[in-house]
Amino acid sequence: MEIIARYGKEDLAVLYLARMKNNYILEFVESLQPPFPREEKWVIIVSTLFGCPIRCPICDAGSNYKGIISSEELLQQVDYIIGKRFPSRKIPVPKFKIQFARMGEPAFNLNVLEILEKLPQIYDAPGLMPCISTIAPKGREQFFERLIDLKNRFYARGKFQLQFSIHSTEEGRRNFLIPAKKWSFAEIARYGECFYRPGDRKITLNFALTRGYPVDPEVISYYFNPEFFLIKITPLNPTAQVIKNELSSFFGPDDTSICPELIEQFEYRGYEVILSPGEPEENRIGSNCGQYVTSYETQKLKKGLYETEKYTI
Description:
- The protein has 313 residues and is an alpha/beta fold.
- 30% of the residues lie in helices and 21% in strands.
- The protein is built from ten helices and twelve strands.
- Helix 2 packs parallel to helix 3.
- The longest helix is centred in the first third of the chain and has 15 residues, at 71-85.
- The radius of gyration is 19 Å and the shape is globular.
């Protein structure tokens, strides 16, 4: 792996572009979540595919899909960042998240499961909590069945976070935002109730609130038991595809006024609700959205990039 560029701020987020041995480029991120310092909470976000075959209209990763990322390449992303901060591979951070949520749908890559099994063996990290963010694509039942087993063996009692991207409760609008064959709400609900065990973290239903794409708490409460599921509300990130498709967010880091009524409706139905508006600086860095690989390959990304070093494990 060769790190060809980096961009960001050490006290918030740093995005890395890496050229792999097949000459494909991927990206990964290390970030903090203010006001927590790195010593308390630290996040690594890795790519699982070279691009993505789904081509969601809110995400830039679908412009040039080139296949899955190998187990070695998955681990290299994690190990590069850990090696910079904790070369002993002992990580004394009480909340240490590794999110498989950058480029690509993780359920399309069985190597993700192999890495989940290896992480506790490679790193001394009592605070380790992996996170899978997925659209729940159809045909990947083997991935999700094995995920339950791995979670129960290695990450039980609150050490794993599972998130389903929902975005809209209106079927046609959801299909537009996520143009792939995917589980129905009933199928996600059934799986979630099999996945959850007492002491686990509740399963997240994520909504990137988009104007014209309704979110109805009554629909969610019909399918999803608040004993097993919680709600996360995020803005629509300002990706190139969002701009191209003329989509707009209901709210952003500087304006959350649209959310209290929706939050109240969810809480009335018994849900825990997380409002995550993000940081304006993260949008400028691109650590919480977009994919810089496309910009890099088309020579659009120039300012703020620095050549760095080759790295192997």
